[in-house]
Specification:
flat; mainly alpha; single chain
Length: 55
Amino acid sequence: MGLNTKSKCLIVLILLGVVDAVIPIPILVIILISVLLQRPPWFKNLVQEIYNKRD
């Protein structure tokens, strides 16, 4: 049985937070800015998948 989308996102954000704490480069901010500026289709699909699968 695999992880659902919310769990995967949470794990990725936790890992990015740990990397962000260890390396003094604000990785999360860079990713956030790139997502906000480029609006990639994978992000829209991810958000739709999270909100369409309410547990």
